[in-house]
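Before the break, one more example. Copy the sequence into your notebook; we will annotate it together after we see the structure.
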Amino acid sequence: MIISHGSRDEAWVTLVDEAIDKAVWPEGLPVASSFLECVPNRSIQDGVDELESQGVEQIGVVPLFVSSGSTHVDEIAWALGVKEEPLCESDLERFRVHADIVYGVPLDEHDSVYAMIAARLRAMEVDGARDAVMLIAHGSPHEPFQTRWRDGLTRMAQQLKARNWCTAAGHALLCCDDVAGRVQEMQSLLSASRADTALGRVAVVPIFLSRGYFTTKVIPERLAAVMPNYGVVGQESRSFVLERGTQRGDAELEADSCALLYDGQTLLPHPALTVWLEQEARRILSR
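Here is what the structure looks like once it is written out:
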């Protein structure tokens, strides 16, 4: 059973469903895709009931979340009976489960995540020799979850630089950080170290699986505060972009400021997620 967060945005759900549908599962293996919230008739309890009605006595659960820093990963494990207590307060109640549960792990720093990030950087034409990357994630104000988010994103940023995908990298959490301030720090770093003929840019990459409220509204609004003269200028399929001008040079108008790149796109769609789903399912089934 694959469990993800869920959204009222049908496009969000479709991207997740498509990744799951493309996976190659062992022949005869019952598969259910469930959501924590917002998707009618596809709750976690619905998924458990569906599988148990087919006679399933053991359910392997793949938590389709980007980080083990997500409180949802922990509370779902508790609600399924995998652990005695959640690490922070939860609104969930225990699910009715008769089958044995084998609980997997979220994406974290799996190779598939780097493949998806690399695709985003290529799409934004990030130059590894001069541009910087700012990873933005939801995060959590609760411990130990915030530390898990930060540790994972810090290692991820270090890897991006080590792989020469950017000249500098950092992260910001929407729940806890001054996103505009973090981006400005990165812009200042690039401005101080740039060559006169090679002004670097800051590419903002949301570490979210699918587009939704945070990527189409919250992040653009936070970024608009960094460069007020750029502003939110377009809306298509609930996707906002920050204006960069009609030519690349137009995005670099201020001599003391670096351009900001953000296209509102997320990790999906990408075939690497399907690969991870297959690998994590095999790992769980072998336990």
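The first helix runs from residue 10 to 21. The radius of gyration is 20 Å. Try to locate both features in your own notes.
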